[in-house]
């Protein structure tokens, strides 16, 4: 029995047989055998009614434990995030990063504050492949600090994520659940103890919708909302925390005391202009569809577009000479969507200064170009950047606040000059 392509709109919830199997969504008769691993991703993801508990075990993330009476002060002096006060009523974790002396990100992390039952123990959620490097960085700055550092294996701790609108688990014994601080995201947490991963699946599986999420689902979810994560998307020793939007996640406290990388971070905030930020991007061709929603790319599981290599340059189509300079850098993606570090006033209509944006939506088109390493062939695919509503609002507020600070400084300088003349 042949299988036909579904003719309904992409991710139509009414089509219960729409299945993104190996990135190909197929539809068939009722008795057609299909994979149950990624059932009706679109129907689950964009459901309008409140779904049941839907979760994904984040196997690509690991936990590092910091236990001891000096753990709070140790973190307070090492990261830009507002570690204090401990009794944060918001109940969220903190999205932050570790910086080098030049203010560049070396590792991104989620920070979980101590629970009432374990008042001196902090947990860092980091990329699993980067966990040994993060632990090494912490030990380098530990010195005589009374804090015990330990990387927990997947059998000792399991990290998970709950989708937005997903119900909370009622069997919460041993589960730590916090709100993801990034806009439009759900909740994340961890479970400690022996055989943590299997116990987590058993605990949440009894209350879940029986529709299993996978790491790819979580990745697509992040990209559509414009959130980077891990050393591939947040370039180690190159990315600035503001370019990675940590200033909008509450991951930087601009009024706290000294921490590693503070000088450049504070100077950028008070005197500089952040002209590049990470944005969601859609890849397309002249014949292919492009999202009509100017705030969100359109994910297409049927795409056959080539995936650009990491850090491939983005430039204006047909540009020559000085105008052909890079306008962005491709960071990574999935299918036809991804994240890129983009020049805001070149690739979007955002205005950061009095000069305004140079972007023309009708005339300006951009492409990611690269050379194949084996055949030396030149490849390219068009790319369109999108500005999520939460990011647009945050940037507008940031520009307004910077203008007010500048006016206050000028006013103070004038008052100081008047005082000098009187003296």
TrEMBL record:
Pfam families membership: Beta-barrel_CAF17_C (PF25455)
Gene Ontology cellular component terms for the protein in this record: mitochondrial matrix
InterPro entries per the UniProt record, alphabetical: CAF17_C, TrmE/GcvT-like, YgfZ/GCV_T_CS, YgfZ/GcvT
Boundaries of every CAF17 C-terminal domain copy: 275-357
Keyword entries, A-Z: Mitochondrion, Transit peptide
Similarity remark: Belongs to the GcvT family. CAF17/IBA57 subfamily.
NCBIfam families: ygfZ_signature (TIGR03317)
Name of the featured protein: Iron-sulfur cluster assembly factor IBA57 homolog, mitochondrial
Gene: CAF17
